[in-house]
Specification:
Layout lengths: L9 H16 E7 L2 E6 L4 E8 L15 H7 L2 E7 L8 H12 L8 E7 L1 H10 L7 E5 L31 H4 L5 E6 L4 H8 L6 E5 L5 H8 L1 H13 L4 H12 L3 H13 L3 H13 L9
Parallel strand pairs: 3-4, 3-5, 5-6, 6-7, 7-8
Antiparallel strand pairs: 1-2, 2-4
Helix pairs in contact: 2-8, 8-9, 10-11
Length: 294
């Protein structure tokens, strides 16, 4: 984030709004040049989320971190770790915060801790952070387990990021999740790198839920309150299954034109032109879901 912003820049409103929330209900701290943390103390369940500030900050004071809808709807506390752009959260400030909170018994003071993240980089960091919170329940959308050539030689999407080596120091996310109570991985099996990354998550208690042709629409859907709140409620109650997940996601995905386009193309490719036409017609009749850039 630039140190000097134009007065009309909506990020001013975003920063002020999160600062007020932190001052009134917990804290809002700058951890480093590209990382910050918002804590809201509301209930005896804690949601620990990893999110990108640039996903919402252009919305001004309407842009809130992943998990904030759960504070309102489920009366949970929230600790949101935010990055500016794709940093993989490889930062001493982030690690110092998590280590200090764990050492001081902060996570242990809650009846339950839920870890949430969407996207490869946020999911990568959230999985690694699970080592600080034994017994947490974890929900990750399209996470990257690893990106280095050593651990993920198939991964070609993030080769430019390998120089920063976010996979070290160990443990990798799949290893850190050995201490989690449950882990749910949402992914698109039609995308080879996503399917390969999902397969790396093998800790006990891990459930992988395949959602074909969703791609980035999956992250957009999960970030929406009408999806995240019920998914989080199920996560907390240990009732999050493939069936309940698809039921919650279905109405939102059916309003995402990118998802519908991929679904129609898949139907056409597999020799079902009539089904492709129905999907296309349905998509043209539905209003577009509001975009949530990542």
């Amino acid at each position: 984030m630039p140190d000097t912003l134009a007065p009309t820049d909506p990020r001013h409103a975003w920063l002020r709004h999160l600062g007020r929330i932190g001052a009134d209900h917990g804290f809002f701290d700058r951890l480093s040049a590209r990382h910050m943390a918002l804590f809201v103390d509301e209930g005896d369940t804690l949601v620990l989320s990893f999110d990108r500030a640039d996903r919402t900050w252009d919305q001004g004071d309407a842009g809130l971190p992943l998990g904030f809808d759960c504070v309102r709807a489920l009366e949970v506390s929230l600790l949101s770790i935010l990055s500016i752009d794709r940093t993989w959260f490889r930062d001493a400030g982030v690690e110092d915060l998590l280590q200090t909170l764990a050492k001081e018994g902060f996570f242990d003071s809650y009846a339950q801790v839920l870890i949430l993240a969407t996207g490869p980089d946020c999911g990568h960091a959230a999985a690694r952070a699970a080592r600080h919170v034994p017994g947490a329940r974890v929900l990750l959308s399209r996470p990257a387990a690893a990106i280095s050539a050593t651990h993920a030689p198939f991964e070609r999407r993030f080769t430019d990021d390998r120089a920063s080596d976010p996979d070290t120091p160990p443990p990798l996310g799949p290893e850190a999740l050995q201490s989690a109570a449950t882990t749910t991985i949402l992914f698109d099996p039609a995308r080879a790198p996503e399917a390969a990354q999902a397969a790396l998550f093998r800790a006990p208690g891990t459930t992988r839920i395949a959602l074909p042709h969703t791609g980035p629409a999956l992250d957009r859907a999960v970030a929406r309150g009408e999806v995240l709140v019920p998914l989080t409620r199920h996560l907390a109650a240990d009732t999050l299954t493939a069936q309940t997940t698809r039921k919650v996601l279905r109405p939102i995905l059916r309003r995402d034109h990118g998802y519908l386009a991929r679904l129609a193309k898949a139907a056409e490719t597999s020799g079902h032109p009539e089904r492709a036409a129905r999907i296309t017609t349905t998509g043209s009749q539905r209003p577009k879901a509001r975009p949530r850039p990542r």
